[in-house]
Amino acid sequence: MKEIEAIEAIETTSSLETSPLIKKQEELATTWDYTLFMWHPISMSASVFLLTQGILYVATILGIFGLTIAVYNKSLRNKRHIQSWHAIFGLSLLLLITTQLIFGLAIATFPRLVFGSTLRAKKLYKYHRAFGYIFLVLAWVTMFTGTQVGRTKREFDHLYVWVMTLVVVLVGVVERVNRQKIGF
Fold this sequence. Notes:
single chain, mainly alpha, 10 helices, globular
């Protein structure tokens, strides 16, 4: 009789460990990490939106904030950094955009000091603008690669939605390109 009660107690304990209530508690334990990490895609999406609008200052600040959240989240979980194409593109792009911002500020604010003359700075403006368009396309590609990583892919694996969105954005950006201002 005692053996049967002991077996039933073990079975009851095992069923509790796999019960939906226990699973929900385990999910809630990791919710804080996901709540913190949710600011990464939000800030990066806002950054790319502002980049598309040509507002580099705020876009760069939001990009740095998004990168900080991603690095902090990886550190919390003791995971290796810069392991995906999304991370490689994102970090590289943030460095390029920061350089682009500094270059644009030099052209607009200190043309004589940095470039020797206003005329020489104006001649370099076309490169600033052309690289801006290239970086914008790379920013959207980086966002696309983010949709193909880990949790996002597991929970929303609809590749056609992401591809259609990227194509629509690219068509819109190409239509906005002012070829006369690039002047190659």
